[in-house]
Amino acid sequence: MIIFLSVAIFLCLKKTFKLNISKKVFKNKRINTFNKSNLNKWMNLTKKERYNQTKKESVSYLKNRKVLLDEIQKEYKRMKKSDSKRN
Q1: What confidence tens digit (pLDDT) does each residue in 17-64 have?
Q2: Which run of H or E residues covers position 11?
């Protein structure tokens, strides 16, 4: 039981320490989106930071795309049901 508690505490401390470091390192150079006006800021980022930013944008794009696709499918089903009721 003591071993389990010590491992759990160690993992929690490790996670919080890692989060604090990453917040301090990337705080100054964070860019929300890439566009024409912030091209110079984007190019001043390191290769790894640009990669991570692109990855985040890709994930958010895929989430938005899934939501839109679900809405389109629901609308299509509604239209199909209303057409079948008319006939």
Answers
A1: 665 655 555 555 566 666 778 888 878 888 888 888 888 889 989 999
A2: helix 2-26
Q: Distance between the two ends of the chain, CA-based, in angstroms? A: 68
Reading the block at residue 52, the tokens are 């991570």
Rounded to two decimals, the pTM is 0.46
Tokens 């929690």 belong to 12
The C-alpha atoms of residue 10 and residue 44 are separated, in whole angstroms, by 36
- Sequence-distant (6+) residues with CB within 8 A of 26 are 49
**d(Cα 44, Cα 55) in Å, to the nearest integer?**
17
